[in-house]
Amino acid sequence: MTQRKEVAVDRIVFFEDEQALNFSPISLFRPVFELLCGHYSVRERISKSFADSSWGGIIRPELREIYQEEHPEASINTDVNFRNGQTLFIDGRWLTQKKDLDSIKEGTAGWIDDELVWLAVEPSDGVEFNCPGQVESLRSLAQTKRRVQATGRLVHYPWDLVSHNGEQLTLDFNDRSKDESLDISQNLGLVGDAKNVYVHQSAELDPFVVLDSRHGPIWIDEKAKIQAFTRIEGPAYIGRETQTFRANIREGTSIGPVCRVGGEIEESIIHGFANKYHDGFLGHSYVCPWVNLGALTTNSDLKNDYSNVSVPLAGKGIKSNSNKVGCFIGDHTKTALCSLFNTGSSIGAMSLILPGGELLPKHIPSFSRIWHGQLEELPDGTSSAISTAEYAMGRRGQTFTPAMKRHILSLFEKTSAERELALSRNR
Predict the structure, then answer these.
(1) Which class would CATH give 11-156?
(2) How many CA atoms lie within 13 A of 187 on its CB side?
(3) What is the CATH code of the structural domain delimited by 162-425?
(4) From start to end of 281-331, where are the E strands?
(5) Would the pTM count as exceeding 0.90?
(6) pLDDT in tens, 321-350
(7) Nearest Cα to 309, choosing from 298, 324, 327?
């Protein structure tokens, strides 16, 4: 039997399949391959192994403009000419590690059960791939390739990212190259093996910080600032320029870049550019960028009877098959003090939560507010939401662009049916 060659990849194309819609509300502003799990998104993780390759994406049309603006180097939703070299298609829901990529050989297609994970395409396979054909065309072409059982795993819902985060944190820690770590021997409490702790040289750690690596590794990235009386249990990732304030960060937590966090956080993902400055509990949850959680905002992640949790994604209850599920909060949503989220809550983008002293509805659609205990549509539509988003991004040195405004206006229309259904249920 002829040994198949490893693929010398000229181009990577990350694609969203039909299940991308299952990740609302956390995917309303990004493709699924940009969702965080471990240290990275799927795109970031795989791109590091193919650093010399160009890349592109096949994504939902409504995301194309804002995503292309963020990544001008990428080819988004364009036809692919196979004659221009080897092309590797990657499903954006694939959680993997470096060694999983070794099974990708020329002339093969990787599957997990009956789901296509990756497809290696050669110049001889045809002239071009027409983007409108998308996933079905890829699956048809994959049937002509040698079938390979892919390793790693595919995620299907937002809670899968959370439940697999601890494992992915460990894999990413082991796969990453490490410069010399900051000396953490002074005034710190280190519990466990120091080899399982990496602190970037530019990070700042106050005295009386505790790093506990007994259950997994800890990575503290560049220019992070860890305030005194913070405790971090591994596996954990503290992203670039993130600040912690007397925080109790439990194992299985990823905090992306430029966040400010305090209180207790357990097995959760804070994507980046989000604030949870004050006390309050966040558990088994995913928080999107530009979310601000007010003082004592708290969620439940376990029902009193320990039964499995159902989550109302886009208003439709989905069984999680897990008894530990928190909340999923979309971009630019703000919560006021003492907001109390029930187990398995879904909170859309651009919403305002003003609690009335009791548990909030499990489903709060995008562009809604809780006002005196009642669910309402934002009274001025998108006007105040856009102004607040522009102001919040400016405070972090980010630019709110006309493309973002157009996306928000379009999203307001696309989520109108979901909003009306939720309002009718609460009348």
Answers:
(1) alpha beta
(2) 10
(3) 2.160.10.10
(4) 281-283, 286-287, 292-293, 298-299, 310-313, 316-319, 327-329
(5) yes
(6) 999 999 999 999 999 999 999 999 999 999
(7) 324
